[in-house]
Design brief:
The protein is about 10% helix and about 40% strand. The chain has helices spanning about 5-10, 25-35, 150-155, and strands at about 50-55, 65-70, 75-85, 90-95, 105-110, 115-125, 130-135, 160-165, 170-175, 200-205, 210-215, 225-230, 240-245, 250-255. Strand 13 (about 240-245) and strand 14 form a beta hairpin. Residues about 5-20 have low confidence and may be disordered. Keywords: Signal.
């Protein structure tokens, strides 16, 4: 296996997180729910429709693994927003999913800047909202220093790795993208000067012409983002389209069985 992808996959090879960290009342969320999402009422929580797991105490606040999961037979999701209540930019990412991704089994790594609710608000096909989330104890994820020196980051930016394996009748795809995803709150460890925000803000993944998922993101998605997801394969190549806030664009295609 390629060393770059091996390191990323090891982050997922841990036991399932304990379900001991439910969402807590949050004045910040009460404001975000209305001002950002336009929801007057609290969306219902129903693990039979959508669940979210995340560690109760983050091992590393800059790469907190978040797992979104639906059981078999759950209603399809039309769109989904990931919110980290106490982050400087609380909307971490907004997703749209294709039919091949249902029922949803999707993992991503986020920055968490302080003790916070991490929640997913999904819109179902009939327009009804549903929410899932956990309370995560973490600190400083958005200002954590970059994992590599600046020169190396520029050299490898935009590189991608893909792996797909069969599991329980579906494919499990793992996509890794090299990008520093600078939050604008970090400092260069040599000069101590602030690093301007520079992050992936648009991602689209397809198999052939069929959509798997799109992502519109902010500063809260981790450095070198990794996406692990289940999908129903159609035999066509995987196409990945990436855009960042500096106007860079990367496109790459992979065989399903890579």
């Amino acid at each position: 296996m390629r060393p770059l992808l091996t390191a990323a996959l090891c982050l997922w090879a841990v036991p399932a997180f304990a379900q001991e960290n439910p969402l807590l009342p949050s004045p910040t969320w009460d404001d975000l729910r209305v001002s950002v999402l336009g929801l007057e009422a609290e969306p219902p929580q129903d693990a039979g429709v959508l669940d979210l797991t995340a560690p109760m105490r983050a091992h590393e606040a800059a790469i907190v693994p978040v797992h979104l999961l639906q059981p078999q037979g759950a209603p399809e999701i039309q769109s989904l927003s990931l919110i980290v209540d106490e982050n400087p930019a609380p909307v971490a990412a907004e997703y749209a999913f294709g039919d091949a991704m249902m029922p949803l089994d999707f993992e991503v790594r986020l920055r968490v800047d302080g003790y916070s609710g991490v929640r997913a608000i999904a819109t179902l096909q009939d327009g009804a909202p549903v929410m899932a989330g956990r309370f995560v104890k973490a600190a400083g994820g958005c200002s954590a220093p970059p994992g590599r020196d600046m020169a190396e980051m520029r050299q490898v930016m935009g590189q991608m790795r893909w792996r797909s394996t069969a599991e329980d009748g579906r494919q499990i795809g793992t996509l890794m993208i090299r990008h520093p995803n600078f939050s604008g709150l970090q400092r260069d460890q040599l000069t101590l000067l602030p690093i301007p925000a520079h992050f992936i803000d648009r991602l689209e993944v397809r198999q052939g012409d069929e959509l798997l998922f799109t992502m519109s993101a902010g500063i809260s998605v981790s450095e070198d983002p990794v996406f692990r997801f289940a999908y129903q394969p159609n035999g066509q190549p995987i196409h990945v389209h990436v855009e960042d806030t500096n106007g860079n664009i990367w496109d790459q295609s992979f065989d399903q069985a890579s």
